[in-house]
Amino acid sequence: MASAELMRLHKLHELDRAILQIRKRAAAMEEGVKLKALADQARAEFDAANGNYHTRHAEQRDLELANQQITDKVKSIEKQLFGGSIVNPKEIDALEHQKAGLIAAQAGNDEKILGYWDEVPKLKDLAESAKSRAEVAIKKFSDWKANAAVQKVELERRFKELSAQRPALAKTIGPALIGRYDAIRAKSQVGMADVTHEKTCEECGSAIPEMVMVQLIDDKVVVCEGCTRILYYTGGVV
Ligand SMILES: [Zn+2]
Fold this sequence. Notes:
Elements: H1 4-28, H2 31-82, H3 89-171, H4 175-188, E1 192-194, H5 210-217, E2 230-232
Parallel strand pairs: 1-2
Helix pairs in contact: 1-3, 2-3
Bound molecules: zinc ion.
């Protein structure tokens, strides 16, 4: 059996461990910051891919429209040329020249349009897959957010409740022992460790030597050789 003081310290240790658990869970909530960053990044990538696609698509349509206008213009020139209204050779030459220029420009545009036909569908695919990725990332973050608000309130409530119990419990332990306990806790987060049925340290798994077991049974304050935490032994009673 452990001494009454060690039993009280063990109670404090259990409280401290519960508070530590809450702290760890609160820290795990920081995950939301990461999820938000991922969602923001995915959204920015979609915006960029989508912008790229729309820009190229608009350029393609402008060229197609320009070529349509050229076709119309060429038709109207041909109408003039073959309509018989123009007979002056100079005028005919000028129109022929204009028509040739227009056809050359159209051929240039066609070449560019072919490039767009190849590129634009690929950009569209990229934008669509970026959109799916963004939707997934945004949903992950919003699911987390919905859940986190509830969890945060509960964690804060438990934290306050448990922290309020600590001072009274700490007062029941002598200054030497609690000083030692708090020093270990400051270093290793957990200040005390139970001795298992297999006579090992519950925290670090080190085997507890027979000599130490004798001291524990004798109610001495002994620390684990593996992790230096204060050992707690109930002799299998608890
Ligand atoms: Zn240990």
